[in-house]
User: Fold this.
Amino acid sequence: MSTPVKKVPIHLQSAQNRLLIKNGKVVNDDGITDNDVYIEDGIIKQMGRNLIIPGGTRTIDARGKYVMPGGIDPHTHFEVELMGAKSVDDFYQGTKAAVAGGTTMIIDFVIPRKDESLLEAYERYRESADQKVCCDYSLHVAVTSWSPKVKEEMATLVKEHGVGSFKMFMAYHDMFMLRDPELIETFKACKELGAIAMVHAENGDIIAENTKRLLDAGVTGPEGHEMSRPEEVEAEAVNRACVIASQVNCPLYIVHVMSRSAAEAVDAARRRGACVFGETLAAAIGTDGTNYMHKCWKHAAAHVLSPPLRPDPDTPYVLLNMLAKDGLQVTGSDNCTFNGEQKALGKDDFSKIPNGVNGVEDRMSVVWEKGVHAGIMDPTKFVAVTSTNAAKIFNLYPRKGVIAVGSDADIVVWDPNRKRTISAQTHVQAVDFNIFEGMEVHGVPEYVIVEGRVCVDECELKAVHGFGKFVETPSHNIDYVYCLIEDREKRPRGVARTEAEAKKHAEEDAAIA
Ligand code: URP
Ligand code: ZN
Ligand code: ZN
Ligand code: ZN
Assistant:
């Protein structure tokens, strides 16, 4: 049983419930077709050419444009309380910005307060988000401590509240961090429940040690953030998480893979046959860690997130290639925005700078620009890594992540020939800084259709407060996740030994001697 959604869907109150998108190139993860798309009451009802359509239907001409599944951003932190600050993009402003950029669904993380139970935290998020979201959303839940009660609550969340994924932190010492025995237990619990384990993979003990050493040496600025957690500290934790998940045969999703060696560790685990998925971020492919050396403290601090951006200028290219070749599967944003004055909590100590950057609004543009426009991936791969793969992994497919008859009408009409320049001056997000400032991007969402409603209309944003709803991510995703697990399940068997064999072997030994 799921938590009831009380409100009346706004599209049922709207007169404009029929829509035809004509003459476009429909892009799915498996190919591009010339099709018109007819939508009624929020659902794709027909596809083809020369469709027979009721009178009074609004038509959008998509000639020369791509008609793609709306983006799914599986990693946001709206109005999250973290390191003494609350992120400034709330569920309204955050999802409005998402829609402005062509994203029609987000998955946020419930992070429980100290002394708050998982269920209480989940209810708190639902209460706030249900009223505010401009597009559909789901929730992952963070497990930040381990006890029998936590295990019970995980089961309740899966069985009664539509949660299918749990995030565990290997970093954030004395805050959220779990140790290996706890990771083993949480992964086992996920496996038992048919859920997906997610990890923030960095070695928290090493980071604590390095932080102390750097601060003692007088390195207090944002550059110390990256110096305290170089990429091998990320790669070690990625590998450890993959080994633990593989040993307990639990599916694993590594959030925010930020470095070459971490991506290689994900890729290597997948090649060994482990059920592991890797997510990188718009931030990781759209900018880099040289920003931590910037002379302006505010600029440098605005780039602080964990794991950090890498100073190696090739990393964005390497991560994009990993996405293109299925070494990594998903691009999220990890949108977790703090204003300059909040970042200033760490003015004298980099370890106190609230962690997080923007990305929910610009993720689609950044992946298009650096991936498709740069010739590294084609539009079908773009759809895979910005929408379809997330839908498949989190069991939302084919309701989401595909343009097909019967799917939700979450669609972006993308004009590859238009350009725009990203800037904090013009972005929709509440935050006062944009890490992609000044980037010129080709490809603009001309129309964004959320559940059949035109929420970006010829580039004009018309998002609706509270229009979205909570969508369950059911457990036991056999088609895309647990199929990989069942295949690997083997009953342990010992060696059968008989008296007769032992006697024969002893005689042979005696003969040799
Ligand atoms: O720095 C980050 N990534 N902030 C958000 C919290 C998290 O670890 O994902
Ligand atoms: Zn994280
Ligand atoms: Zn995050
Ligand atoms: Zn012997």
About this structure: The longest strand covers residues 411-421. The pocket of zinc ion (ligand 4) is lined by residues 505, 509 (CB under 6 Å). The radius of gyration is 24 Å.
